[in-house]
Amino acid sequence: METSTVAANSRTSTQVITSEQLLKHWQGHRNLTRRVIEAFPEDEFFKFSIGGMRTFADLAMEMVRMAVPGIRGVVTGKWETAEGADIFNGVAMPATRKEVLQLWDNVTKEIDTFWPQIPAQHFQDVEVAFGQWENPIYSTIFYFIDNEIHHRGQGYVYLRALGIEPPHFYER
Amino acid sequence: METSTVAANSRTSTQVITSEQLLKHWQGHRNLTRRVIEAFPEDEFFKFSIGGMRTFADLAMEMVRMAVPGIRGVVTGKWETAEGADIFNGVAMPATRKEVLQLWDNVTKEIDTFWPQIPAQHFQDVEVAFGQWENPIYSTIFYFIDNEIHHRGQGYVYLRALGIEPPHFYER
Q1: Fewer C-beta within 10 Å: chain B N or C terminus?
Q2: Under 8 Å CB-to-CB from B80, ≥6 apart: which residues?
Q3: Do B138 and A13 touch (CB under 8 A)?
């Protein structure tokens, strides 16, 4: 018993980042992105863009469409593509920002529900995500997070171009 | 001996992300940012901006100025501020993009040199980075990376506004 306790403690203390910390990190970023969505005027959220890029509504919906089948794929090994039967896959663009925020909050709950089901050793397993991208699970999860930071940074430029001050980047 | 080997293997297999993997993750992002710097025309790199934001030269130099005292602080516990004596701190904006790229490559080597000196258990230590931000070391390192992704995403909008196709986000 004593040896196994020591080993368990040792494991915890030498984690670069624990599973729980990574969940909190992701949800912290998602909380900031939610406030960026709220910072847009209703019409500009759906229509404003620069240089032929997608609107922030399109970018936010990409995050929604990636996150739920993503976390389900991580947990179940079933990577449903956009053509799949999942309620979030292929979900149509809502007509209002309020509905996008409701979807956002549903995703927050889905992630919180699925995340604790990731077995500790699974982060290092290599899997083909969405039938296309072969990477360790940790790397696939970082892709979800990094992709969100990347597109949210673009949303900051849209807001500045509209004369709106975005939320502070360091507040999560 | 056998018990300690089992414990060590167990530690490795249950890491969410190892120290070496996190280094590779950061340097992969830095490699992409380097290509974004290269994608800018020389003059626009130093002068183009949208909505009163900083130029991409300013953003790239923020990354340079944060990374080296950052990784040194992580390793040594000495967090030199921009007023410090470090050669990278307070370093003036170079006159050419080529010189920025040379600084960038110096930073790459500094990170590679310092990183392996981070003790395994140190990622979970809480420290006040740069005399201001009290966080676990892993969180401080993620701030360096996330801040770079955030500002690089803004550089993508600048490039698109200039009619230039940025490098693929998923290529590191």
Answers
A1: N
A2: B69, B72, B73, B86, B89
A3: no
